Amino acid sequence: MIDINRHYWRLAVQLMAWSLASILLGVTLLVTALEPFVRGFALQLLIWGAVDAVLAFLGGRKSLRAAQLRPDEYRQVRETVRLRRLLRINARMDILYCLVGAGLYLVPAGYPFARGTGLGILTQGLFLLLFDAIHARRLPAETPPWYDPAL
Predict the structure, then answer these.
(1) Is residue 143 part of a domain?
(2) Count of domains in the chain?
(3) pLDDT above 80 (res 37)
(4) What is the b/e burial string over 32-41, where b = at least 16 CB atoms within 10 angstroms of the residue's CB?
(5) Residue 90 lies in a domain
(6) Looking at residues 83-105, what average pLDDT do you find?
(7) What is the residue range of 95's domain?
(8) Quick check: 29 and 45 in contact, CB under 8 A?
(9) Looking at the domain assignment, is residue 150 inside a domain?
(10) How far is CA 38 from CA 2, 60, 86, 101, 143, in A?
């Protein structure tokens, strides 16, 4: 049986680390770079980093709150099923982000800000695709025979 609270905490810590690195790099590039390509890339790092930080904070808070509850095997299985489903849906959305980012990156060279934006979206989308897919795969796909999702 997986400890879902620990898994949520691990997700939150890893996502927060990525988001802080994205924010730090994004701010640094925005402050120092003048090239539109770099500024488009940096803006995406900053925006996605901020969104990821909020999600990581909420996930960490959920983990801490759940850890205070009495251990409940049924809740553990239910939360594991929910998290795995959410991560798999997110991975599919990440593919769309990658396609949008690649499309923007491939616009003509006369649009450097759009191309930098595309590379930023593609970078974040690829990370999130790997992150979501790896974490979904680490969760058990099978539920115990006694588990009834209707309850």
Answers:
(1) no
(2) 1
(3) yes
(4) eeeeebbbbb
(5) yes
(6) 97
(7) 4-138
(8) yes
(9) no
(10) 42, 32, 33, 15, 47
